[in-house]
Amino acid sequence: VSWIRKRDLHILTAGILTYTSDQRFQVIRPDKSDNWTLQIKFPQLRDSGVYECQVNTEPKMSLPFRLNVIEAKARILEASDLHVKAGSSVTLTCVINQGPHDLGTVFWYKGTEIVQTTQPHVNDADSATRVTVENQWTDGLTSRLHITSAHLSDSGNYSCVPTIAAPTSVNVHVINGKHTWKAFKVFYK
After folding, report:
1. Cα–Cα dist 87/152, whole Å
2. What positions does the domain Ig-like occupy (predicted)?
3. Whole-prediction pTM value?
4. Cis amide leading into 120 (omega within 30)
5. 89 and 18, same structural domain?
6. Domain that includes residue 145, residue range
7. 92-107 residues labelled b (16+ CB within 10 A) or e (exposed)
8. Which CATH number belongs to the domain containing residue 50 in this structure?
9. How confident is the model over 76-131, as pLDDT tens digits?
10. pLDDT per residue as tens digits for the range 118-159
11. Residue 28 contacts residue 16 (beta carbons within 8 Å)
């Protein structure tokens, strides 16, 4: 039994031997089994294509398989530039939904610094946590970064960085008071 990559007719495996220097490829055959499985570890977009299992008989028997590798990408549901008034709440929602596999976890960054959830100081009158991250797994992975009572210092570029998908980001602008908001609206008319 051999496995062939059709795009370049490269023989990947023959029997239990591997004929490619790419160590991500290997054949798996349990003892006394008639199943010969081609395994590709850490598939990449360039691995997409047709792979053919061939049995050396007369006439030759073959069975083609199409592999479609989809790049997992994160996306933030909010606009790429988000403007909020100081004191209001901000929720950023990041979604990763490609693939039936483990989607890992998500880290949130503000600029180059990881976002830390804030625990209130014992002397704070407001006992609620101001910055929280909530992850939810359903058909995909949804991560929400929530900032209660936004401060001017919360302005910046926020990135959703999954462990197994391409990251994405949004710019958050916290605006102080009515006069700043009016000036902003006039500036962009």
Report:
1. 9
2. 1-56, 59-171
3. 0.61
4. no
5. no
6. 75-175
7. bbbbbeeeeeebeebe
8. 2.60.40.10
9. 998 889 999 999 999 999 998 765 556 678 899 999 999 988 655 556 555 568 89
10. 655 556 555 568 899 998 887 788 999 999 999 999 999 999
11. no
